[in-house]
């Protein structure tokens, strides 16, 4: 039974090796110092980024993870396929061995990975070795994949001649030693994760190995103890152990102990990515089981495609989140020919670039063919298979192995946080092409976190979420948000790295650098002192504005500093209180002594916090000029001079007003027109000097046989004449002989005995025209032209029959004066 199980394990191991190299993506790198010593030798060794259950992540791990750029393709992986051999090997297992070798050489995506294949049994007599390193650690580039394909064929049978036992300690020791070999100094590849895939039934058997003791029981006991030691060495070196057991007598507890004894780091925080054992029922299931185990270990995903015999069209789907993938076609027969079509139905090249993707086909002449694609077009891919007659009897299967390498877009708010301040972190994810992921279904199962490191505090991690709970604004918007409080001990540079992972998805974990911002001061104060000229004994005013951000009031003191020698100054009030949690304005004064010397006054006013050792919060210079007190004349000369000037101004104003009043009452230029039944009889224009005091007296002469005439009169004759008077406001009043005063409007006739009188050219606003708006100011018709008398007694009468309103025998014209 033991031999049968061992050989079945061998064939499975080869399949696992091929599956391993067929899958992309990074595993969490162990710390750079982890391999140098046991746990505890370095703090970074026990707080590696991504370690399951670890309480924090160090700067070393974050920086190492950040060194890989997603643009360079999948991160490399260092792994060992460790095969527990037995004494017999069936034909179907030999076929699986051949196909596994093809997967090993053709299916790997990263050409920076390293792989080794180790068979093991036991050493029970001279000439035997517990391990057989059939493939030394080899870089899986183009040449390396060919070498791995060939060397894996050297796995041979184990029997009584070669050591049929199961020496787990030796096998694990050999794998850990090879995986911790340093890469060449010229290599630019970052530190790679280290994984051992162990194919076995999980039963330790060193009972016949002399190196473990003198008897069977002692050998088994010592073997179990040494296995524990080798697992501890693997854990310290950052090497994961993934056991895969099959058969009818599996020791599950032993497999579980080996999975839990190695390094417990994971490529993701989701369940299933931490090393664990797996059991397979039959060898027929090994292909699927191996690929699924590897996917769990490396956070890759497998899309199962269709199966068919040539000629046929097989299909497999690559999701939008995939950035690196490999379509593996298990042909079994090298005569099968394969053609690949992208989701748009276009035939893709076997190598080179096409529509933003990079292609490379390998293994066309072998039993397994692979199309490696960088930045594949998402959707359903079609694989067309053809074969000549006689080569169409075996089923061909297609699978897609892929991984999403995403870039993070990180923002910090505030960008420069203060110690003790709450910081919000928001992350979006995008592909290598810069396409932002907006469909939450593409990130299903994703976990997100961030790590903060910096001077003055221990590194720590916190969760990011897209669940719509504060601080996240909206669930499902593919913006992962979280908060942290910057520790009070933070003193300078900060580094934040986000980590987002799910099966098949990893982020670049590129660090974001920031600096600790300045603290908000407990007290802020501002002093302002007036710049003035004062006399001895005078005062200078100032204000103190203070903001107290503390929860308790502070007592402040105003003080004078650097005073001019001999100056006696006092400041008040002092002390003053700054209330808690508010801003306050406090006025103060600086008083000069009566004997203060004349001249510029130096010194400063300062405000100090008495509760903080008289810490000076602010100062202000005294910019003051001291001058002698004024004399009586200094005090009153301006008032006396000002009074005299005021009197002169008042007198001038009175004279101006009197002159204006006289001008308003003056009737010079006013024309009187005598009418009868609308017919002009005679007109008279008042000359300068004829209207003293604003009054003009006139009479109507009616000579026998002639037209009536207007004539101005003076002296005693004026007492029996008509009187036209203008008031100070400019209003015209007419007092006919022997009658009462009546108002006169320019251009409108008023009764005058047996005749009518019309006054023209008179500016007679009523009421005060200058107070009316322009549109309401009356316009007085002004008569000009022939027939107008411009002097006393020199008027010309209108000829009988002249049209009303005419002045003289020929056409006079009416104009209008705007009255102000």
Give a nutshell description of this structure.
By secondary structure, the chain is of the alpha+beta class. It is built from ten helices and 44 strands. The strands form nine sheets. Strands 7, 9, 11, 12, 13, 15, 16, 17, 18, 19, 20, 21 and 22 form a 13-stranded mixed beta sheet that branches. Strands 3-2-1-4-5-6 form a six-stranded mixed beta sheet, sandwiched between helices.
Report on this structure.
The protein is of the alpha+beta class and 820 residues long. It contains ten helices and 44 strands. Strands 7, 9, 11, 12, 13, 15, 16, 17, 18, 19, 20, 21 and 22 form a 13-stranded mixed beta sheet that branches. Strands 3-2-1-4-5-6 form a six-stranded mixed beta sheet, sandwiched between helices. Helix 1 (2-21) crosses helix 9.
Topology (elements, then pairings):
Elements: H1 2-21, H2 43-46, H3 59-66, E1 78-84, H4 91-106, E2 114-120, E3 131-139, H5 142-151, H6 168-179, E4 194-199, H7 216-237, E5 239-246, H8 252-261, E6 278-280, H9 286-298, E7 301-308, E8 312-318, E9 324-330, E10 337-341, E11 351-354, E12 357-362, E13 368-374, E14 379-386, E15 396-413, E16 422-430, E17 447-454, E18 457-464, E19 480-485, E20 493-502, E21 505-507, E22 512-515, E23 523-529, E24 532-534, E25 539-548, E26 554-561, E27 569-572, E28 576-578, E29 582-592, E30 599-601, E31 604-609, E32 615-621, E33 624-626, H10 632-665, E34 671-676, E35 679-685, E36 695-701, E37 709-712, E38 722-726, E39 732-735, E40 742-744, E41 750-752, E42 755-760, E43 779-784, E44 813-818
Parallel strand pairs: 1-2, 1-4, 4-5, 5-6, 15-21, 24-33
Antiparallel strand pairs: 2-3, 7-15, 8-14, 9-13, 9-15, 10-14, 11-12, 12-13, 15-16, 16-19, 17-18, 17-20, 20-21, 20-22, 23-25, 25-29, 26-28, 26-31, 27-29, 30-33, 31-32, 34-35, 34-42, 36-37, 36-38, 38-39, 39-40, 41-42, 43-44
């Amino acid at each position: 039974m033991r031999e049968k199980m061992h050989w079945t394990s061998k064939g499975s191991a080869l399949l696992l090796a091929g599956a391993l190299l067929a899958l992309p993506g990074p595993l969490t790198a162990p710390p750079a110092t982890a391999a140098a010593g046991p746990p505890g030798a370095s703090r970074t060794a026990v707080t590696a980024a991504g370690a399951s259950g670890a309480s924090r992540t160090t700067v070393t791990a974050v920086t190492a993870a950040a060194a890989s750029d997603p643009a360079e393709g999948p991160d490399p992986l260092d792994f060992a396929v460790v095969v527990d051999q037995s004494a017999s090997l069936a034909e179907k297992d030999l076929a699986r061995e051949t196909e596994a070798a093809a997967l090993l050489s053709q299916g790997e995506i990263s050409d920076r990975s390293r792989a080794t294949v180790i068979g093991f049994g036991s050493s029970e007599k001279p000439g035997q070795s517990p391990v057989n390193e059939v493939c030394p650690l080899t870089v899986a580039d183009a040449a390396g994949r060919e070498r791995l394909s060939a060397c894996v064929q050297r796995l041979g049978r184990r029997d009584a001649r070669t050591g049929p036992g199961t020496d787990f300690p030796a096998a694990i020791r050999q794998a850990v030693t090879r995986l911790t070999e340093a890469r060449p100094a010229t290599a630019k590849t970052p530190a790679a994760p280290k994984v051992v895939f162990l194919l076995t039934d999980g039963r330790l058997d060193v009972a016949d190995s002399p190196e473990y003791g003198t008897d069977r029981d002692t050998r088994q006991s010592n073997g179990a103890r040494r296995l524990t030691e080798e697992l501890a060495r693997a854990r310290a070196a950052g090497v994961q152990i993934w056991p895969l057991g099959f058969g009818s007598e599996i020791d599950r507890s032993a497999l579980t102990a080996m999975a839990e004894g190695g390094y417990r780091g994971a490529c993701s925080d989701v369940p299933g990515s931490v090393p664990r054992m797996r059991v397979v029922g039959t060898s027929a299931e090994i292909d699927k089981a191996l690929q699924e185990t590897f996917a769990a270990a490396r956070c890759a995903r497998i899309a199962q495609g269709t199966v068919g015999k040539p000629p046929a069209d097989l299909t497999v789907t690559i999701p939008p989140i995939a950035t690196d993938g490999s379509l593996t076609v298990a042909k079994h027969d090298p005569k099968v020919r394969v053609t690949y079509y992208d989701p748009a139905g276009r035939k893709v090249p076997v190598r080179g670039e096409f529509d933003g993707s990079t292609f490379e086909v390998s293994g066309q002449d072998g039993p397994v063919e692979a199309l490696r694609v960088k930045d594949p077009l998402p959707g359903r891919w079609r694989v067309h298979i053809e074969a000549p007659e006689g080569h169409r009897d075996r089923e061909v299967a297609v699978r897609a192995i892929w991984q999403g390498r995403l870039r993070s877009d990180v923002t910090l708010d505030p960008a420069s946080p203060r110690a003790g301040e709450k910081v919000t972190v928001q992350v979006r994810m995008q592909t290598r092409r810069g396409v932002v992921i907006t469909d939450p279904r593409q990130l299903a199962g994703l976990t997100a976190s961030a790590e903060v490191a910096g001077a003055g505090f221990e590194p720590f991690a916190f969760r990011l979420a897209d669940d719509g709970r504060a601080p996240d604004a909206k669930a499902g918007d593919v913006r992962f948000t979280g908060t942290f409080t910057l520790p009070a001990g933070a003193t300078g540079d900060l580094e934040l790295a986000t980590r987002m992972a799910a099966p098949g998805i990893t982020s670049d974990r590129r660090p974001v650098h920031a600096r600790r911002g300045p603290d908000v001061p407990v007290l802020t104060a501002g002093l302002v002192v007036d710049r003035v000229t004062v006399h001895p004994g005078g005062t200078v005013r100032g204000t103190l504005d203070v903001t107290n951000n503390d929860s308790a009031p502070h007592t402040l003191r105003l003080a004078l500093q650097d005073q001019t020698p001999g100056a006696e100054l006092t400041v008040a009030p002092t002390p003053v209180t700054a209330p808690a949690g508010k801003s306050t304005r406090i006025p103060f004064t600086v008083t000069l002594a009566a004997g203060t010397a004349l001249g510029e006054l130096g010194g400063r006013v300062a405000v100090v916090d008495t509760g903080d050792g008289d810490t000076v919060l602010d100062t202000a210079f005294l910019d003051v000029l001291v001058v002698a007190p004024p004399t009586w004349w200094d005090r009153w000369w301006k008032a006396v001079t000002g009074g005299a000037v005021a009197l002169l101004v008042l007198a001038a104003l009175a004279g101006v007003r009197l002159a204006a009043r006289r001008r308003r009452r003056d009737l010079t230029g006013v024309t009187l027109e005598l009418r009868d039944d609308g017919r002009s009889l005679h007109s008279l224009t008042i000359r300068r000097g004829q209207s003293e005091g604003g009054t003009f007296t006139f009479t109507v002469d009616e000579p026998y046989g002639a037209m009536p005439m207007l004539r101005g009169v003076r002296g005693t004759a004026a007492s029996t004449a008509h009187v036209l008077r203008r008031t100070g406001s400019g209003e015209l009043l007419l007092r006919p002989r022997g009658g009462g005063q009546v108002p006169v409007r320019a251009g409108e006739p008023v009764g005058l005995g047996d005749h009518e009188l019309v006054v023209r050219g008179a500016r007679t606003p009523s009421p005060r025209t200058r107070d009316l708006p322009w549109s309401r100011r009356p316009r007085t018709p002004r008569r000009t032209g022939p027939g107008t008398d411009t002097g006393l007694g020199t008027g010309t009468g209108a000829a009988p029959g002249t049209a009303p309103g005419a002045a003289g025998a020929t056409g006079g014209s009416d104009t209008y004066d705007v009255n102000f």
